[in-house]
Amino acid sequence: MRTRHALAGAALGAVMALGVLAAPAQAAPIQAGPSASAAVSVNTPPTTQVWGHYGSYLNQFECNIAGSLSGYSRWYCVYSDYSDLWELYVDFNS
Predict the structure, then answer these.
(1) Burial annotation 7-19 (CB, 10 A radius, 16+ → b, else e)
(2) Nearest alpha-carbon partner for 75 in 66, 86, 84
(3) From CA 39, how far away is CA 42, in angstroms rounded?
(4) Mean pLDDT of residues grouped by 10 in the chain (94 residues)?
(5) What is the per-residue pLDDT for 46?
(6) Which top-level group of life is the source organism from (predicted)?
(7) What pLDDT sits at residue 89?
(8) How far apart are CA 51 and CA 94, in angstroms?
């Protein structure tokens, strides 16, 4: 039994070594300098998301319309089996 494990380990080691040797060389990552056109500063803390219930609708179409007209940039609709309605949730910080 030990011989079988030793052979299996040796075979696996050989396959891994061949994989490393046969792998194509990868270029080093490019170090980008600071850019004036960066959309978000590195020092800007992430915004906190505050999700809350915004409304209930009879169908998905109404929920999607209400979400797009809500004025919030992040929102989603989900069907609730409990209420048998479409529930709209928005991120109040968006």
Answers:
(1) eeeeeeeeeeeee
(2) 66
(3) 10
(4) 47 48 48 50 72 97 97 96 97 94
(5) 72
(6) Bacteria
(7) 98
(8) 10
The burial class, CB within 10 Å (0-12 / 13-18 / 19+), for 30 is exposed
Output the pLDDT for position 85.
97
72's tokens: 């919030």
Q: Which residues contact 85 (CB under 8 A, 6 or more apart)?
A: 56, 57, 58, 79
What gap in Å lies between CA 16 and CA 4, rounded to an integer? Answer: 18
DSSP state of 23: S
User: For the chain, how big is the Rg over CA atoms in Å?
Assistant: 27
Predicted local confidence at residue 87, as pLDDT: 98
Provide DSSP, 37-86.
T-SS-TTPPPPPP-EEEEEEESSHHHHHHHHHHSS-SSEEEEEETTTTEE
Q: What is the model's pLDDT at position 8?
A: 47
